[in-house]
Request: fold
Amino acid sequence: MRKIGEALLIWALVWVASPAQAQPDITVTASVNTATARQGERIALSIVVSGSNFNTVTRPQMPAIAGLALQNPQPQMSTNYRFVNGVSSRSHTLTYVFRIERGGSITIPSLTVPVDGTTYETKPITLSIQGASDRPAETTEEFFVRMDLSSNRPVVGQQLLAELTLFFKPGIDIVSFTISNNWRTDGFWKESLNDGAAPQAEETILNGERYRKAVLSRHALFPNRSGDLTIGEQTVSLTVRNTSRFQDPFNVYFGNQRSVDVATRSIPVSVRALPEAGSDEGMPINAVGDFTITRRIVQSVVGVGEAVELVTEMSGAGNLALVSKPVYELPEGFERFQPSDEVQLTRAPTQLSGTRTFRDVLIARRAGDFTIPATAVAVFDPQTARYRRIPLAAIGITVNRDASAGRSGAYDMEQGFTLAPIAVASRWTRADDGAFGGWWWFGSGLLLPLLALGAAKRWKDERDRLRSDHAYYRKTHARSRAEATLATISDAEEVKASFAKLHRALSGFVADRLDLPEAGLEDATLTRHLAPYLDADELAIIRQFLDICASIRFAPSQSRSDLVRELSRVESLLKRLDSALP
Amino acid sequence: MMWFVITLLLLDAPDVRFRMATQALTDQDPATAVRELVALEAEGYANGPLFVNLGIAYTHLDSLGLAKYYFLKAGRFSDVNLATQTGLQHVETQMLRRASGLPVLSLNRFINGFLWTYPDRLVAILFIVLVNIGIGLRIGHWITSSSGASTASWVALGLATAVLVVMLSAMAMRHQFGLGIVTLREGALRAEPDTTADAIVPVYEGYEVRMDRQAHADGWTRVTLINGSTGWLPTPGVRAF
Reply:
């Protein structure tokens, strides 16, 4: 879609500007902005379509060209119009930018350019490219970079200054520069000395030629092994502008500004091994440079078990990071713990310096007066190519046995607290008591309310049933109601009335238990309902009792002794029925 | 004969043995003190002074890991609170002098703090109280038919359920994890339970660790340091609470 859009745009531009009566006299040419170039530079390939009458120019298919890397597949496009002697013409230019990848001869093949449906071929172009390896002496170039090393024959650990300098002739403006990150310095410890300030250019004469130069970066390099080492090429991407060249006012895209990658040459370095330090020159610790070394302890009087901090401090310019930790002879009774090591670097413009601090934590195991013996360390001075002996004085330490007498494990001078044993034992507990004296209270505290809840629930359910279930209520209260009826029988009332109460108590009990209607319950109905629960004798007794009660109402008189007998019978019948009925 | 037996019994009493050990400690003989006090502990005796004195004795023997272990153990007895704090402060100072401090990850500080200070008794009491209040109000509601009592009982029982969830979670967490102290003088936290496995970070005595009780290998315990590093330590090098 984008291609179609571009083609339509080109067609529209050309069509609008072209006179309809022009004849088709189209030429298509290809050219580059320079016939000779250097590896790393960028070149522009221009395809120009000229003629008095054409409408559509289609972008050519750009083949892969060995040695050239296309920077952007979208070409820059421009159109020029001319009107000479009454004849109008125009040219349409497509410009592609390539980066030169290698030296030697590079050929841009013939390109096919469709114009208004007709294809036109450009002629091949051959370029002569100057490679990185066969470039002429630096001083013949308009600009170049150079890596200067302070020494090519250092010893292992010696500090070298590597300076990256850009040289450029008057008339060349450096618009911008970028230093590549892939500078290979295998076998060296490398530290940047850059302070972030912009490089300043100054005049200089190189082999009789006037140049301007600017230091782009500085590094401190420390070889960490002997032998033949190589400091690799350092590449710098430059954007330069030539202010002295003729400026083509139509060359809108490039102008006279270009981007170039330039590189330093690799530098061979022959690293010598450090000479052996003599026994009188001190302990070798691989130190090379100008150092001062001190040794001290933080406390000289401690208690048994207390920590003593032994600090060794190296300051100066040199291979601080490559120095070995001095190993001291410790008196018996001291144990060494977890040494620490700190490096603080100071970056001056031309050298790396700083301080390295080794800390040994020593624990005193027994009381007494001890001495860390005097010793010396050897530092190699590259200026004199000789070792310098740096003596370290003996250090005395007093270790106190009594915890309260000095810096013992019981008293801390800094914290100011006393840690004394407790003489009186408080109440003893046993492990099997449990952490909180057992958890019986938890079980009790949970069980008792749950039991209460269960009981309360049961009571509530009973109450609710009694309230809502009338039959259940009658059944539950049948015995008590019958007994209450019997209790109302008294000597003062008539015997007939008492017999009526006996009858009511028995029939009421049976009706309540069997959920029968109280009113109008006939004796025959009552005995029929009782039949499933009693045997024939028991049923006969009840039937007989009911007959007596029925007949006594019509009898002229009845003795009270009969009443007492029947009352006793009713009580036993109620007991029997209570167990027999559901 | 009887006097002899009484003397023997008195000598065997924990108070007498404790006093003898304390005297040994005062006389700058921490090894004897440790022997006697550890024997008391092994027999199941426990109190604040016993653990404080063990902490002090191990400080003298320069076993900061064990010293810290016993001071932390003494922290559960309120009567020796000041001595415990002093002892722990001393041990921490010594550890810093050995440059064996370790940065603390906030999450681990929280988890370890929870494991260490979780008030299980207090939470259990709260649960019981809430359950009792809830049940009491429910019974009251059944008796009086008060809707207020019903609502209050449900609220109390709901809270009790929430507290129960916390209790069970804490129980599960404590079942899986425990706190411990590194007693190795110096070692390495390893990626696998093997002495040849990658060392993740060096460990020193006195480091507090969270032990995963579910993850055990032969002679190795999986632990998490307070800086969040997780790996394996030899089981004898960690003293569990």
Q: What stands out?
A: Residues 507 and 521 of chain A are 8 Å apart (CA to CA). Chain A has seven helices and 30 strands. Chain A touches chain B through 51 residues (CB under 8 Å).
